[in-house]
């Protein structure tokens, strides 16, 4: 009896220790996730501030330059007119003095000077163009729209679902409302800065590992589940509802239903590979089109051509040079899957869903190459099963 009680206590200790470790890891993930969000938002706001300052310099500086030019021209004319007016007043004063003088000879001499031909420069130069025309209607309208959009940015509520053993977060969302009350997300704020950078998505870098339960039966996996290639013989005999039986593919163990995630894979000189994301509910058995319509967001390299597996026809993807290291960025809440050349940092292709995916998404890998494996990060040379 004592031994059984001690065993029960030991089992409870081990179970709670495991749960404690998992909870601490989850909390650390939440800290890192929140910090990454803060860093990204701060970067966006910094970019917006820089853009506003640039617009301020260009618009205000342009207005002030044109103002100074016109005002300077006007002030020069004012100075000229004041000088001419002073000269005329001086002539009139001299004429008044001579009119009362009894020196007739002096009067005649002064009268000739006062009555000398006078050149009116303002008449010769015509009316000066002292007007300002800025034509800022469109600029003011655009700035007004931006201001309204910025005024409508607000922080949504942060909701957490607690249980005794697990802690899940729903991504706190920066949203924007338009006049039509259509909901927007943080991607609207991104529009203030064009382009995207792999540096921003690498803050979400995660390690993934292969799930043998889903593997096509002829795929060979490394011991640490970090590499795969096609084999000659059957490797997996047990059937599974999750296992691919026609397409030479496998998913990762890790699945995501919220937040942003990024992982990388080395494709090297592999001659035929597929990399992307698949919905949890997507078909695995039989022959079917791998396309967004069927829950697949995948790039396919074969016969030296890269294609996006869109609904037939496929979409050719242009590249500069050979792609050897691929990055995949998944934004569950925005419904985006974006592929990067992880070596150069350039964006290759992006799938966009209408809104959030709304279910668990899994990294997908596939190959028909029997010599060159696909390799996930952190994997040195490994032995194969």
Tags for this model:
single chain, 385 residues, alpha+beta, Jelly Rolls, 6-stranded antiparallel sheet, 4-stranded antiparallel sheet, 18 strands, 36% helix, 21% strand, PRY
Structural features, described:
Helix 1 (2-99) runs antiparallel to helix 2. The protein has a domain at 198-375: SPRY domain (Jelly Rolls, Sandwich), CATH 2.60.120. It is 36% helix and 21% strand. It is built from six helices and 18 strands. The radius of gyration is 38 Å and the shape is elongated. The longest helix has 98 residues, at 2-99. A hairpin with a 5-residue loop joins strand 6 (219-221) and strand 7. By secondary structure, the protein is of the alpha+beta class. The strands form five sheets. It has a six-stranded antiparallel sheet with strand order 8-17-10-11-12-13, with no helix packed on it.
Bin the helical content.
25-40%
CATH superfamily heading of one domain: SPRY domain
In spatial order, strands of the major sheet run: 8-17-10-11-12-13
- Given helix and strand content, the structural type is alpha+beta
Radius of gyration: 38 Å
Give me the CATH fold name of one domain: Jelly Rolls
Distance between the termini: 45 Å
Supply the CATH architecture of one domain.
Answer: Sandwich
